[in-house]
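Before the break, one more example. Copy the sequence into your notebook; we will annotate it together after we see the structure.
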Amino acid sequence: MRPVALTSRGTEDSNRDFLEFFLEMMGLLSLDRSALLVVAALFGMYQFAEGGCSGRCCQGTDFTCVTTDWRMDRVYGTCYCDDKCLKTKDCCFDYPTECPAQPCIVSEWSHWSGCAQPCQPSIRVRRRSVERLPQNSGQACPRLEEQAGCMEYQDRQGQFCASVQGAAFITTMEYSKGRTHDLYGAPVDAGFCMEFKMESLTAQCMVENRPYTRWMQYLREGYTVCVACQPPAMNNHSQSCQGDGNLAEREELLHWQAVGSPRCRGTWRKVQRLQRCSCPQVHSFIFI
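Here is what the structure looks like once it is written out:
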C-alpha cells in the first residue's frame, strides 16, 4: 500500500487555500458561485498540464517520484512514476509513453568451461553478463549462469583416462547440441542409438530442480528412452559406450546413473539398437 504523499502541489486543502489566495489577489472573490467554478476548472486544467510523468521516471520503489494527476485507472489524485507503480496500479496516465519499459540486455553466453574434474562425471559452466539493467518495469534479467553434466576422457596431463566398467552415465541430449566436429576439426562420428525401457529409478530424480538437473524429472518408470552413443564417450576400439548394453540380452537388467546428481539412478532393459534416436526430446539422452 502506498503512503499518502505530499506533492509540490500539496493536499486538496492546500490547493483550495492557494485557489482562494489566488482569487483574492485577482479581486475575484466577489464573483458569483458559477464564475468561481469556471475559475476553479481553469485552475484544474493548469494542474493537468503540469502533472504527469514527464521528467519524473524513477527506478525501483521511490515514494518521492510522485505528482497529482489522472492515474491509469482514470482516478484523479496522487500518482507515481516509479518502477513499482505498475504493480501497485497507481501510475500516472502517461507513464507508459513517458517512461517506456526497457528490458534487461545481456551478453552472449561464454564458451563452456572444462569439466570441474577429469575422468569422472562432473559439471561444466558457462556465463553471461548484464549489459543494461531493466528500466521502467522492463523485463527482468534472465539467468546469468548455466551448468551441465559432463565428463572428460583425458586427465590434466593429457593422458587418456583408464577404462572404467560399470553403470551407464547419461545426461540430456542438449549436451551434444551443436557438437559436429572434434577439437581437431574432424567430423564427429554420428555413433548409434540405444533404446531402453525404464524399469526403476530413485525418487531423487523427480525432485531435482536445479537448472542443470531439471531434465531428470522426465525420467519415468515404464517409458521408452533413447540414449545416443557418440564420441568421445564412444570407445574407438570397441565402438561402444560404457554401460550401453549393446551386447546384453534383452531381459538383462542394466544400471544407469544421471550425471549431475549421483542420487538419481536406476535400471533399464535393452529394447533395440538404432542408427538414429527417434524418441521425443524430453526422453532423449546421451552417454557421457
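DSSP finds five helices and twelve strands in the chain. The helical segments are 12-26, 33-50, 85-88, 95-98, 204-207. Try to locate both features in your own notes.
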